[in-house]
Amino acid sequence: MTDNLLELKSVQTHIGAYHILHGVDLQVPRGQLTILLGRNGAGKTTTLRTIMGLWRASQGRVTFDGEDITAMSTPEIASLGIAYVPENMGIFADLTVRENMLLAARSARHARDMDDARLKWIFSLFPAIEKFWNHPAGKLSGGQKQMLAVSRAIVEPRQLLIVDEPSKGLAPAIINNMIEAFAELKRSGVTLLVVEQNINFAKRLGDTVAVMDNGVTVHAGSMKALAEDEDLQHSLLGLAL
Description:
This protein has helices at 44-51, 74-79, 97-104, 116-125, 127-131, 142-153, 172-187, 199-205, 223-227, 230-237; strands at residues 4-15, 18-29, 33-38, 57-64, 67-68, 82-85, 160-164, 191-195, 208-213, 216-222. The chain is of the alpha/beta class.
């Protein structure tokens, strides 16, 4: 096993006539939480979607646990133990919380077939999921929908969890709940790659950080070191953390 669970090398991505990623290099260490930072339009979401095969890399290589996944389909990539929570969360509003969870539990045909111990663990992370188990997902608050999106991603064991802006638009109390849940996920051995603009979230949870600009990686290193270096923050992001 390598120290990096996920690696991108010189990845380029075109979407139609648009050249979005111009050679992204990214390393996600096993068992750690990697933060992906960058200004709006830097290519962060495109990077996540390229990893998942939703958009195809036109050049370069994506490897997961030492295996080249660049040309794999999204279902094949997911079957390796990778879960993706997009920025829009992608929940089914007309289905109940239970039905949303069941759809993600591919090994279960009925709710009673889901892993009871794992569900109890998820309920301990996000009590609202148990509370609103039989409620329509569309009636949940924004924070509760985000909890459902993450819960659905981890209803089966995953090696890697990829999340796009999990704290966007959430109240501080919900963000703290999300931080605690992600810390517990990390303690359980899950590797995480998170696009996040909430600096408190990034500083409290991030082990490593990569900064993108104009479709390339312009910095990679320790999150702690970046958080303590205001000059570097200004040069990379135009702001202080």
